[in-house]
Every structure is written in C-alpha cells, then in structure tokens.
Write a structure and sequence with these properties.
heterodimer, A: 350 residues, mainly alpha, two-stranded antiparallel ribbon, 16 helices, disordered N terminus, B: 374 residues, alpha/beta, five-stranded parallel β-sheet, 10 strands
Chain lengths: 350, 374
C-alpha cells in the first residue's frame, strides 16, 4: 500500500512540491505560501470572477450588488454544479462520462413515473432512482473498463441507450401529476431564506468530493490514475478498479442530480438533463485550471460554475440580448484559460 | 515577457470587448403607452372581451355539415415531430380517424428536417391517402409536399406560419388563431388589472408562430390600455428547461414594476418558474398568464401560481384537420374554422385539467360525428 502515496506524488507534483516534502529544507514562509495560493495561475478565474462582480456592480448598481443576486446565482446554478461535480470524479481518473446528462433525465422520469403513475411512496421511489443511476454507472464501467472501449465512445453509446429508455418511460411526454407537487417537490423547491435545498446538496457533494480527492489515499490514486495510468499501475494502484468505481459514482451522483432537477421542475421531463451536458464539462475543465494546476477538483469546479453563473445572471440583470449569455460563457472560458496559460508560462520562464 | 504581456492584454481586451458589445446590444424592448383608447373605455372593452373569453365554449363553432358521404377506408399518416405536442396528438388523430371509418398510423421522428423528409417519403411509399405534419416548414419538406400533390395525397398541418395552397390543403390554428389568443390575453390582463398593468411578454423567438401572437398582444394591449407599460423578453430555445426561469427572474428583479408576465408557451417557459419566483421573493408581485399549458401548468394554477392560460385544444385542432380531409375526400369545400378559444382561470378551471389533457368543448366528438354524418 505504501507505494501509492510516493510514486504518484513524484509523478504529478511540480518540483517545488517535492522540495517542500524534504525534511532538511525549511518550509516556505506563511506569506510565501499565501502568495503561492493566491497566484494568478492558481486562481485566475477568481480574479476574473471578482472583476466581473465589480463590473456588474458598476453597470447595474441598483440590482446586482446585493444578497438577492447572490442567492439567485446560487439557486440558478445548483444543478449545473451538481452535474459538473458528477463528471469531475471520472475526469480525475481520465475517464469521460458523456452519458451523465442522459442519466439526469432518466432518473428524473423514472422517479416521476414511480410516484405519479405507479403509486410508489417517495423514499423507495428516490432509492430506486438512485439505483437506476448507479446501474447506468455500472454499465458504463463494464463497457469502459471490462470491455476496454474508449470512455468517450462508450458513454456516447450508453447515452443513446439511455435516450431509448427515456422514450420508453415517457413516450416523449413529460410526466406530470398532482402527486409530484407535494413532498416530492419539496426536495428541490424548498428554500431557506431564499436559498433552495439544491444549493445545500451541492455544497455537501462538493465538500465530500474535495475531501475524497484531497485528503484520502483514494483521491491521490485517482489523480495518479488520471495523470499517468501506466506509472500508477506499476506503483501498485488498481487503476481499473478506480476507473470502474469513478464511473459508478458518476452515475449515482448524476442520478441523484436528476431527482433534484425533476423535483425543481415538478415533472419528469424527457429532455431535462440534455442542456447540462456542455455547461457541466465547461465548468469541470475550467475548474481544472484553478487551485490544483491541471487537476480536476471540486473547489475549482465550483469557482468555475460561480464565475460563469455570475456573468450570465449579471447580463440578464443588465437586460443584455438573449445571445449575450452564451457569448459570455464562450469568451470567459477562452479568456480565463488563456490568462492562466500565459501566467503559467510566465512563471516558468521567469 | 513582452509577448506574454501582449497575450494577457489581448485576452483581457477580448473579454472586455465582448462585454462592451453585449452592453451596446442591451435589449430592453419596452414600450410605454401610446395613442390609443383612454383608460376607462379601453378597460371596459377589455372587461367585456375577457368575460366572453373566460366563458367555456359549448360548441366547436363549426356547424356546416359535409352533406355528402365521406369515403371510408382512407389511410392517414401522422408524422410525429419529436416533441410532446406531436406525441399527444397521435392518439387523438387515431381516434378521430376511427370515427371517420379510417385508419391512422404515426411515424416517429426527432423533428429534424432529415427525419421529417424521410417520414414523409415513408408515408407516401406506404400508400397513405393523407399526411398530417404539425407546424410544417414548407422549405424543409418542399419536395415531399410537391410529390404528395402529384400523387393526389392530401396534406394538412396545424400551427404553421405557412400559407395554404401549393400542396397544403389546410393549416388549422395558424397565424390568425395565434393573433386571436394574443388579443384575448391582452384583454384579460387589462381587465384583471383594471388598467394598471405593467406587462412582460416572454417570447421564444425560435418559434415563429409566436410572432403573430406577440404582435396582436401588444397591439390589442395598447388599444385597451394606452397607459399600461409593455416589454418583451426573448428567450433562446437553448434556455428552455435550463436557465429560462433565471432569465425571467433577472428581468423581474431589474424591472420591479412589472406585475404581469405573459408566457408565450406556458409549459415550456413555466417549468420551474413558480419555484424560482418564490425563491426570489417575487411570487406575490407578478401574475403569470400564458397559452398552451400542460397538466403541470394547471397543477400550478390549482396551487395558485398561475393566473390564466389559454389551453391548446389538441382535440379541436386534430379533429379540424381531419374535418378538412373529410371534406376534401367528400368533394366539398374545406371550412376555415378555428379552434375554440377559452381563457382558463382558477375560477373556471375544470377538475380534469390537473390530471391530463382535456377538450375545451366537451361535446366536440359528438359534434364532429354529426357534421361528418357518422
């Protein structure tokens, strides 16, 4: 077990990290650590985010700089954040899960169908919904890990199977029923002082993933698997098992996300998850440029979601035209990645 | 280092430029009152019209019998367009075809032009006597429409902006119907507000049929209430089911004086909206009205979240399309009847609205059967 911590670290951490680990060398000062932590190449998106907050505070001072806007941004982006966190886990092990949007849709319609059409009580219905998500994750894992099919193609294929299942369950018609308006709606629609429960779920999941990736051996093995699977395997990491479990976890989390989304919508929509495919990956990839130098991580993902969400909400409050939100997301992604890359090259050069 | 600085500067300029461009394109298409009927008279007129529109129709409004025998055994192909409305219509068309002594088959598609063309070709190859395709875009299936006309296959549609003729036998619920809905919604808002409305029309610009509704809504609204404020918010189709509620909430937060929101497609725009309004503390400040709701819309209405809706009467629209085909095959002129118009409110909402689709005119089937001599 011991090789797991040393080899991946040596393989993935920059030289400075190894130097920090050497016992004979005195550690960097607190100020140096702080400066390192706040360096532009580590948290460039945070600076862009702050810049955007300042910009919109000046642009729409009546409506933007207040608590209501903060709550709105949190509420509006909870599902995107959950979806992005769901893909962060397999991405850490360098595995794509393109089927997660389909899983979001599928579990939403399955739970809605169980409650509305089959009369299944709430808790068993939710449990079955999560099991469906885990089941899809299991299928993904078998196809990718056992059958050795590239995850990008494999999860596209399972996504197509999921679409067929969604049509089978819904006949392309949203599942609506008064039964979905009671306790089920409370799962996603309940708000505490204007903040919906979706935000709370997101916070819990983000902390859990942060702990997993940053403070457990499993997290380090996941990163090792993602950065150099061959080296990780030689170091004794069970690469296949980790990839297998990461896809199962992604399926389960996407499944839970789908249930929350269905609750927020008050129906099982056959297209509910589709719009989250690109935003979730955009947030995960942008998040990977933050905090951890190219590693997919929960904190960076949340920062990315908030950065993009703040801009989109700010533009809406400023009555920007309908194309502005998409343009903003595209431009910010390019700008943030470019700024981070330039800064990183500058640091290495200088 | 200078190259790095240049690149960094360029990236910042790109970001800043984009935001400036966005700012220059700000889209607050509001319009205040203009010259039109003054408050009292306009409101009175709106009240009268709203009262009529909120009364449930008891007749489909089509009385002219066909007067000739409708040939039996016709085969109707219904091309499903991949969205909820099309799926729902398939069963109704099958029922109506059976009432005429015909058969109907649904051909599934995902709504893409390629699949629609393929489905149309399939219908023609299978020997259909008539083809039904909702909201047709003539350009997308121009060759197939032409081919159908050459083969003597009748083609009808609904809810399309295309003109009748040149292969389109009938377009039920087209622009005229949309305009009628807009006029009645305007009356309802002005009447309900007593001439104190400040209205936001939430449009989905990708749905061209809504242009007629939007145009008539604004025009009638100003006629009924010159001093009432009116604005439009365009929602991209890509926002449906995702951030549409957030966009509406943002607009309402930046325009706190708005007290009516018109949802151009209630079911598409309303999903998740009541919860978003509640979380933002806006639920009690605005009234939601709209058209084309589904079961969820009426459940929201029952819960007090939606004020009034003009339902899309699938039953009347589908039977009117079949009526056009029946008249065509019987050799009599096609009637230009429109689907019945009804504004549903919490006070007049039928109990079945929260459980599934319902016909606006309860006796629609009997009436059509009588007209068809069945």
């Amino acid at each position: 077990m011991t090789p797991l911590t040393s080899v991946p670290e040596a393989a993935t951490e920059p030289p400075t990290a190894r130097a920090e680990a050497a016992p004979a060398t005195p550690g960097p000062s607190r100020a140096a650590r702080l400066a390192h932590g706040l360096a532009f190449d580590r948290v460039g998106a945070v600076y862009v985010w702050l810049g955007i907050i300042v910009l919109f505070s000046l642009w729409v001072p009546e409506t933007f700089p207040n608590l209501a806007t903060a709550k709105q941004i949190l509420n509006a982006n909870a599902i995107t954040a959950l979806a992005a966190l769901a893909v962060t886990i397999p991405l850490s092990a360098r595995v794509f899960d393109l089927s997660f949007a389909g899983v979001i849709t599928l579990t939403g319609v399955v739970v809605a169908h169980l409650i509305a059409k089959d009369g299944v009580p709430l808790v068993p219905a939710i449990a079955l919904g999560v099991l469906v998500g885990l089941g899809i994750g299991l299928i993904n894992a078998v196809v990718v890990v056992v059958m050795r099919i590239d995850s990008f193609i494999a999860t596209l294929a399972t996504g197509s199977l999921i679409a067929a299942l969604v049509t089978m369950v819904t006949k392309e018609v949203p599942i609506t029923d008064a039964k979905l308006g009671a306790a089920f709606a409370n799962i996603g629609q309940t708000n505490v002082d204007g903040v919906t429960l979706g935000v709370l779920y997101c916070a819990v999941v983000a902390v859990a993933i942060w702990y997993l990736l940053e403070h457990t051996a499993t997290g380090r093995r996941l990163y090792a698997t993602g950065f150099n699977p061959d080296a990780a395997r030689l170091a004794g990491v069970r690469v296949d098992r980790l990839r297998f479990l990461s896809l199962v976890a992604s399926g389960g989390l996407a499944g839970a996300t789908g249930i929350v989304l269905a609750s927020m919508l008050g129906s099982g929509s056959p297209t509910a998850g589709t719009p989250y495919l690109l935003p979730a990956f955009a947030a995960a990839f942008l998040g990977a440029t933050q905090l951890k130098h190219g590693r997919f991580n929960a904190g960076g993902t949340i920062i990315a979601v908030l950065l993009l969400g703040t801009g989109v909400t700010g533009l809406a409050l400023a009555n920007a035209p309908q194309w502005a939100g998409d343009m903003f997301v595209g431009v910010v992604l390019i700008a943030a990645l470019a700024l981070t890359g330039v800064q990183r090259r500058s640091t290495r050069a200088g | 280092m200078s190259v790095h600085r240049l690149r960094k500067g360029l990236a910042l300029v790109v970001l800043g430029g984009a935001l400036v461009a966005v700012g220059c394109g700000s889209d607050d298409s509001g319009s205040g009152g203009s010259s039109a009927q003054g408050g009292g008279a306009g409101v009175e007129k709106a009240l009268a019209q709203a009262e009529k529109a909120t009364t449930r129709p008891t007749s489909i409004g089509l009385t002219a019998g066909i007067g000739k025998d409708v040939p039996a055994g016709k085969k109707v192909a219904f091309i499903s367009c991949g969205v909820e409305a099309c799926e729902i219509q398939g069963d109704i068309i099958k029922q109506g075809a059976a009432d005429l002594g015909w058969t109907a088959e649904a051909i599934g598609t995902d709504g893409s032009p390629e699949q629609l063309q393929n489905a149309f070709e399939t219908a023609l190859r299978q020997g259909a006597d008539a083809v039904i395709l909702n909201a047709v875009n003539r350009d997308a299936v121009a060759k197939q429409i032409e081919k159908a006309e050459q083969q003597g296959v009748a083609f009808v549609t609904c809810c399309s902006i295309e003109a009748e003729g040149n292969g389109i036998l009938r377009n039920v619920g087209g622009k005229e119907n949309s305009a009628r809905i807009g006029e009645n919604l305007a009356a309802q808002i002005v009447a309900d507000s007593g001439g104190e409305a400040n209205t936001l029309f939430v449009n989905i610009s990708a749905f061209q049929i809504l242009q007629a509704l939007a145009g008539q809504l604004e025009s009638s609204y100003k006629q009924f209430c010159a001093d009432c404020e009116y604005a439009t918010l365009d929602i991209p189709a890509t926002s449906l089911g995702k951030d549409a509620p957030d966009r509406i909430v943002s607009y309402l937060r930046s325009h706190p004086q708005v007290n009516y929101v018109v949802l151009s497609v209630s079911n598409a725009l309303g999903a998740g909206l009541p919860a978003a309004l509640k979380a933002a503390g806006l639920a009690d400040k605005v009234k939601l009205v709209g058209q084309s709701g589904d079961t969820l819309t009426f459940q929201d209405m029952a819960a007090g979240n939606i004020d009034s809706v003009v339902p899309f009467d699938y039953y009347a629209v589908d039977y009117l399309m079949l009526d056009a085909l029946a008249r065509h095959f019987a050799g009599v002129p096609v009637e230009q009847a429109q689907p019945p118009m009804w504004i549903v409110t919490p006070d007049n909402m039928p109990a079945e609205a929260t459980e599934g689709l319902f016909p606006v005119v309860e006796s629609y089937r009997d009436e059509f059967k009588q007209i068809w001599g069945k």
